[in-house]
Design brief:
CATH superfamily: Jelly Rolls
CATH architecture: Sandwich
Strand content: 35-45%
Largest sheet: 6 strands, antiparallel
Distance between the termini: 65 Å
Strand order of the largest sheet: 6-7-8-15-10-13
Helix content: under 10%
Length: 150
């Protein structure tokens, strides 16, 4: 109840709050953050996620949490000096958003530009060459222990 001195009335307000769990600073050392986690979905805001160094440049990683093993999504700012790496378990799907360059895939250079998608299977040695911004979907969920450099 709220009493308003201006008009002498009493107001009653009911606020309904759904089951929302806020998961903050999960794995802060990796800059991982999920804003909301619900029973059947998660929401992340990339502008609230800190970028972390990765073999390709800097990555903002969403949906990384101990209870999510299915998939994660990253926005990656590729630098010129991306390092060749591979994953033993992860499949990655890259979508180039900005910039032009090449993807090195098992030693082959493939030209890429915005709206090019690349499906990278486990074991494929890969790197991006050129300044780009990409979306990276990791399946299963990203695991920093499954990032191998040559």
């Amino acid at each position: 109840m709220i009493e308003s001195p201006q008009c002498g009335r009493i107001y009653t307000t009911t606020i309904r709050i759904s089951r929302v769990f806020v998961l903050a600073s999960l794995r802060a050392d990796l800059g991982l953050f999920v804003e909301h986690s619900m029973a059947n979905y998660m929401i992340a805001r990339f502008d609230d996620i800190d970028a972390v160094k990765c073999p390709c440049g800097f990555s903002r990683r969403a949906f990384v949490s101990p209870d999510n093993t299915l998939a994660t999504m990253h926005i990656v700012d590729i630098e010129q000096d991306a390092k060749v790496h591979f994953h033993k378990k992860l499949t990655e799907i890259y979508l180039v958003l900005e910039g032009d360059g090449n993807m090195e895939l098992d030693g082959e250079m493939v030209p890429v530009k915005p709206f090019t998608a690349i499906f990278i299977k486990p074991g494929c040695r890969h790197r991006a060459v050129g300044k780009m911004r990409i979306i990276n979907v990791s399946i299963p969920a990203f695991d920093p222990e499954d990032e191998w450099l040559d």
